[in-house]
Amino acid sequence: MKIFKLFRLHHSQRGFTLIELIATLVITGIIGLGATTATVQIINQGSRNADYTTASRHANNAVYWVSRDAQMSQNVTIGVDSGFPLTLCWTEWDNSEHVVTYSIDDDRLERSYSIDEGTPVETTVAQYLNTASENVTTCTYSNRVLTLKVTATYGEGAHAISVSKMREIAPRPGL
């Protein structure tokens, strides 16, 4: 019986008022705006992290390969402009002559490796190297120490990420 009385009290109200609908839309809009803002920030941060990782991997790869070959070398010859082409030579225990030449072509570090003046094997060691500004990829050789500075830049415009790596390498002495 009480249910019927309650039903009669609210029988004249059919649906929501305009104010209730507007309040619902405003609250839903605020929640949607917050979710959209958070999603955009996550996407932008993920993109920056990916750009940093790419630049860092290429700079590290360049440093690794040059360091590896420089530690084996007995003779180091550097070029005039920024130290490239860089030529590293050594003789193995079996008297085989190894020659590695690193050169920069556009924004790539190229490695040319040959044994006993055979056909050289050419590979791209790193890409996205910065060669056009004050943060350039350079190498110098002085006092039997090869100093290598590699800067890789990935991304475009104001969102470009640059990563610099520097290493000093002491080649092995001539035997």
Protein model, in words:
The protein is of the alpha+beta class. The chain has one domain. It has two helices and eight strands, in the order H-H-E-E-E-E-E-E-E-E. The strands form two sheets. Strands 1-2-3-4-5 form a five-stranded antiparallel sheet, with helices on one face. Strands 6-7-8 form a three-stranded antiparallel sheet, with helices on one face. Strand 4 (108-115) and strand 5 form a beta hairpin. The longest helix is centred in the N-terminal third of the chain and has 55 residues, at 18-72. The radius of gyration is 32 Å and the shape is rod-shaped.
Any chance you could write out the topology, listing elements then pairs?
Blueprint: H1 2-9, H2 18-72, E1 75-77, E2 86-91, E3 97-105, E4 108-115, E5 121-126, E6 138-142, E7 145-154, E8 161-169
Antiparallel strand pairs: 1-2, 2-3, 3-4, 4-5, 6-7, 7-8
The count of domains is 1
Proportion of residues in helical segments: 25-40%
User: Beta-strand percentage?
Assistant: 25-35%
Rounded mean pLDDT score: 86
Q: What is the structural class?
A: alpha+beta
Number of strands: 8
Q: Please tell me how large the radius of gyration is.
A: 32 Å
- Output the strand order for the largest sheet: 1-2-3-4-5
Largest sheet: 5 strands, antiparallel
Shape: rod-shaped
Low-pLDDT residue intervals, each spanning 5 or more residues? none
Number of helices: 2
H/E element sequence: HHEEEEEEEE
Distance between the termini: 109 Å
